Amino acid sequence: MTEPRTVLPSGRVQPRFAGLCTFGRYPRIEDVDASRSPVDWAIYGVPFDSAVTYRPGTRFGPRAMRDASQYLKPYSIEHDVNIAEVLSLADAGDAPVRPYSNEDNLKGVFEHASSIGGPETKLLALGGDHSIAYANIRATWERQGSPRGGLPLIHFDSHLDTVDVVWGDRWSHASPFIRAIEDGLIDPKRMVSIGIKGPLNTAADLDYARDHGVEIITHPQWQQDGPARLARVLDRLGTDPSYITFDIDVVDPAYAPGTGTPSHGGFTSAEVFAILRSLAGVRLAGADVVEVLPDRDVNQNTALLAAHVAFEILCLDAVSRRTTR
After folding, report:
1. Strand pairing partners for 41?
2. Distance CA 205, CA 216 (A)
3. pLDDT tens for residues 254-289?
4. What b/e readout covers 106-145, taking b as 16+ CB neighbours within 10 angstroms?
5. Residue pair 109/95 in contact by the 8 Å Cβ criterion
6. Nearest 5°: phi and psi at 108?
7. Contact between residue 81 and residue 319 where contact means Cβ atoms under 8 Å apart
8. Which residues contact 4 (CB under 8 A, 6 or more apart)?
9. Is the pLDDT of residue 325 over 60?
10. pLDDT exceeds cutoff 80 at 101
């Protein structure tokens, strides 16, 4: 039997409700012997929500996801892969945050993210509001060698998040992707936004993404021909490692009530798992899961769903590495 890359406590020996609460019960990054097993993925929290435009509280999202993730197990039936055997995983704690300035916070999170693990370590950020994606994307872009033209991006969300300015601020959770495109961190022509839905302020809210070549697949469009359309988009993404950003509000609030900007008429939890699993074969550069608001959650449903989404993202990388090897 192959020695696992990530050593996990057995849930049949040590109860899942006991011990240190790290994401997925993965070891703390400082407890991993990187010389023996370099960390493939560092999961870290960004407890920040000063950039929200409606209901606050996602600053408690990373803590809630860690708590819910105690019930995560490492083997995926659908992918037939045990991520603990293929990947060295570690919890890197939380980034320091600066709650009084959106822009200053992103600078601090980026600096912290850049210091985590080694150059081969991929970063999975747990939000916090969606503004934090910018910092993790920037750190990921640099770890990928600052590719000219930017990273391909797979974006799950009810909202496009390409608004220029809200309340005089350019760094809110409505703006991470316009800033990332402007700074060359992501390639809009290799970006797909999946699940967009709900009323907009004006039709012009769609203009920036469309004018820059972003592929927008609304929720109704996905229901009609999403899988076929996504297959064409994946061809356009190419073989370069892609970044996945997942806003929990892409899921219908009947399944994920714990979020600050709920939008009805969305995916079920089973549907988002199916979409994520259909991405098997995509090489990953990094990821984030954001906008979990525990105060509005019911029975920890949203936090557990978000933790499971993070697991599905890690599975994609495990499958990719297993196939390569």
Report:
1. 89, 122
2. 12
3. 999 999 999 999 999 999 999 999 999 999 999 999
4. bebbbebbeebbeeebbbbbbbbbbbbbbbbbbbbbebbe
5. yes
6. -70, -40
7. yes
8. 82, 84, 85
9. no
10. yes
Residue 319 tokens, joined: 């499958």
d(CA 162, CA 160): 5
Question: Per-residue pLDDT averaged across 306-314, rounded?
Answer: 98
Task: Supply the DSSP string of 122-186, one letter for each residue.
Answer: EEEEEESSGGGHHHHHHHHHHHTT--TT-EEEEEE-SS----S-BTTBSSSTT-HHHHHHHTTSE
- What residues does 126 pair with on adjacent strands? 45, 289
- β-pairing, 186-196 vs 151-156, is parallel
Distance CA 308, CA 45 (A): 15
Residue with tokens 């936090």: 303
- For residue 276, CA distances in Å to 109, 227, 286, 312 come to 27, 11, 14, 7
CB-based contact 323:85 (threshold 8 Å):
no
3-state secondary structure of 203: helix
Cα 320 versus chain centre, distance: 18
Q: How far is CA 204 from CA 171, 207, 298, in A?
A: 20, 5, 35
